[in-house]
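Homework-ish question, so no full write-ups if that breaks the rules, but can someone show me the predicted structure for this set?
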Amino acid sequence: MAALNTVQTPSPRPGERDAASAASRRLSGIFGSNLVGLLIAIAVFVLLFGFFANGFLSKVNLYSISRSIGIDGVIGLAMMTVLVTGGLNLGLGAIGVCSAMGVGWALQSLGLPIAVSMIFGVLLGAALGAVNGLIVVTTRLHSFVVTLATMSIFFGTMILLSGANGFNALPRVLTGFGRIRMYGVVSPLLLIMLLVAALLFYLYRYTALGREMLAAGANPFAAKLSGLPVERLFVCCHALCGGIGAIAGVMASLRNGAIVPSMAGPLGADWLLPAFLAPVLGGTLLTGGGVSVSGAVLGCVFVEIITRGLYMLQIGEFWIQTALGLVLLGAILLERGRAAMALQRSIGR
Amino acid sequence: MNAFRRMLRSDSLGLALVVLLGGAALSIARPEFLTAYNIDVILVGFCLTVIYALGQGVIIAIGHMNLALGATGCLVAVSFGGAMQVWGLPVWAAVIFGLLIGMFCGFVNGWLTHKSGLTSFIITLATMSIFKGISLGITEAQPFYGVAESVKAFGSDRWGPLPETLLVALPIVIGLAVFLGRMIPGRQMLAFGGNPSAAELSGISRARMVILAHTLSGLLAAIAGMMSVARLQLASPAIGDEWLIASFAAPVIGGAVLSGGHLSVLGTCLGVLIVSLINQALVMLAVDPFYVQVLLGALILGAVGLNRLRESRMGNAPVLRLS
Amino acid sequence: MSRQVKSGLQVEVRGVSKAFVGVQALDNVNLTVGAGQIHALLGENGAGKSTLIKILTGVHQPDSGKVLLDGREMAFRTPREAIAAGIGVVHQERNLITRFSVAENITLEDPPTRFGLFDEAAAVAATRKWLDLLHLDTDPRTPVSRLSVAQVQLVEIAKALSLESRFLLLDEPTSSLTPHETGTLFAVLRRLAADGVTIVFVSHKLEEVFELCTHVTVLRDGRNACDSRPLAGMTRADVVRLMIGRDERAFAAPAIGTRSGPPALELRGVATGLGHKDITLQAHAGEILGLYGLVGAGRSELARAIIGAVPITAGEVRIDGKPERIRDVADAVRRLGIGYVSEDRKGDGLILAHDVAANIAATVWHRLGKFLGFVSDRMQNTTAAPFLTSLDIRTPSLAQRVGNLSGGNQQKVSVAKWLAAGSKVLIVDEPTVGIDIRSKAYLHDLILKLARDGAAVIVISSDMPELVMLADRIAVMKGFRLVDTFDNAREYTAASQRIMQAIHG
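A: Not a homework solution, just the prediction itself:
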């Protein structure tokens, strides 16, 4: 977000004496990384809640955590794919709900087979995302305001077309799928999330497309002058976000056993917090070009554990929202503090 | 002559024409539009919306954004109601309490944004959730009904044909126009929004500008929150839930540029009027209210696109830059 | 002058050091400027001039050492404190609020008020006085966004003058001024100095320094190459030697391209969306074409048009004699084999946050990924590794972030990515700005070698000696037009005269 203030680090003109510090940097890189910090934090909180919150480690609770991780994880991963561009998608929830409604329409009104309906839903989400991307790229406006507007447009149109009526006669296969328990504690939704995560990991790590997306997001000007089709890549990122958002919408419907337009709150805005929490905790850069798929997954695990744990401690569900806000704030400030410390260390070298 | 030409170039003339033509078209299509009742509805809505729209506007002016605007208004509204119902504070004390809370929320946003050097988006996303959670937590999602009679009267009484809330809204609008147009801190804020590093080299403090703008935004959110209490006659924790889109729509329709440096108070007022006109028109034409959503979204897109076009014609937008 | 300045400030910098992430920008630097002196601060790009200026104006704080004004030690924490202490500055970067009017900008530090409100009439009157002084005939109510580059620079100078500072710092104030405007400025500066104002003047144009200044301090690699010496008695060659640490380079004599067959790149009467008109030039394989022009002449913009970042609106582009339409950058890079080493290495040349291998391989990922676009780290490293040795890129590993490399090595990386892409036409924009002397010499040799190996190289540079040394032919631009093209015999005096003639004649 070019307009917003990011920290201005004094322009470095580093010498060639990096070699000595490289080793120590690599060490501090491992221990200072989000992944290890998150793992430790997860372990600590699991122990704490397991000890103090009655029934936290019960099968029912673990199952419900695994289900939430599945859904919110996919939501977070969807947002991550567009954070790559240095932009964001406020309308992720709206796209998710619209696509789920699309699936419901295909299933119930058109009577299409399940697989076809699912593909239709994901394509619909990708198309809506691509619309965002196309507007961002052609008008060169910031994605914040573009998606603010399209969120309203998509959601409003969906309500007008559907008359705000949901689809609650889903095929039994589907409602049953949402209720499957594997080994008593694992929801198949969690596996879907892991599959999406694996695919994204492959994309960013091992494909030309993923690498080009990261380069374009990190510095669109440089990427463009290197001959990368930056505009097309950005549209792809937004479409990917929409497609994964559609998957999240269908997953949320499977949990509910019905597709309802209000499942993500007004305009789908209830997804906003989980969508940002997971990737930001996981170390995805808001300025673009830096992602961590495993970080986002762990971030989501951490958030769900906190949520469920506080719930079990009977904190009152409203205060949990406050707690999550504080977690987000804490995480970003911690990250900042660490960056500042790293800077000082290298100056005092 | 010069003044006339400047007026032609400004954002507001076209908007004023849109308001007039829209109003005229509507009153021809539906003659009952020009009834006192309808105008009253529009005015009452205007008084509230313009305050929180300006609350977002001052943040847009420095190139930031405030997602926590509605949550701040909500927290202030329930604190205001709670102070009267639970603590039994007199109205004036409850108002001061509310204003202080709003300014504190804004200060926290500004301070955190400045200190962390992160985008205000992520900071206010976090504080939005915190403020909203606190409001829901202390009320347990139930409204406070013990609102003082004088507050209720303020929200419902008319002053001649005009709503009493206009007595608050109008001075705020004028005050803010003078502040941004003629007062030094206001000019400095716009200078900072237009080019932060240049402003800093001219001795304008980054910290002071960021915190000033966010605190001002919190103050305006507080006023809007308490005005909502007066209008609804109760302090509901749902206040502020629907502010976000309109709070961006109105300043942006009024010509504000999201990268900062420019905010037209008059334009924002006209933006609010256009939004409420559309609202009213759709109600009168008996159209589904969700059309408002769609139209509002389209309006934001159209307006920012238009602003961008004008910016690049004026040479303010970089030519070679990408996004 | 409205106010007689009784005594100028005597400015002393003693043993100032400043480090940024891993870089010693200033190392024990001294500077002494007497009251009423016009003092030149010289050094190559990256020598530490800007850092020193930023310390004097409160933008940065020194790690050690002192700044003394009239013998009193000062420690500015913010620009505001420096302004209050009587320091006025014209920064190198444009620092105006483009949306504000000229008058608002000039009075930004200390706006006139009436009843607590901004007094526009007073601001306009005050502004007009300073504009008149510089013979700038612009309405103070005009928004800065409507001014030309030169007008903007003059407004910046007027803004610094308006503070009536006792110490004035000017960092490259003349970069976009005509000789006439520069003359006016110098007259004003001399009058100020006579009134006792202390002036520090930074410029690349040595002719101006000798015309205006009495004393000189030269920085080299963040240290004093000379400390506050009188200019009288020094020659241009003396100063250059201090700046680069040796005599100006003896010119190599590279092979001139054969120029047989069609040129690798040919523009015929090209016009662009940015205002270029009727540009006709040829670059042959094996040849270096130098492109000279002042800031704002449209050189980099032309380069961006050639690689497709800016639309070409008229005329014809021929590659190897074949007419081609450049659709976008991807088209120019991938199909036509054109490469562009950007002048703004950190801004749009490199992805600083990504590693060396990714930066080099970015141009060829699409070719590497054969099956389902699969690209492994190993494939990427295989592509990038040869360039570490062939270009002598000093990095601990291919996984090092480019942002952690020195300027010279960064520049080598941004050349390497075009070698990886196999570009046949390479445009190199200000290749040695901000680069230490050793890397500079290396880059010069590299550019010569590239041409000898058969690429058509276009070098854009504001550094006239560099250009005269490298180019086989020189094209001169002015106001988005080509004003002269000539074969370069690598004879500095003749070439520089011809260039100046083309620009100012």
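Now go work out the reasoning yourself. Hint: Residues 43-242 of chain B form one domain.
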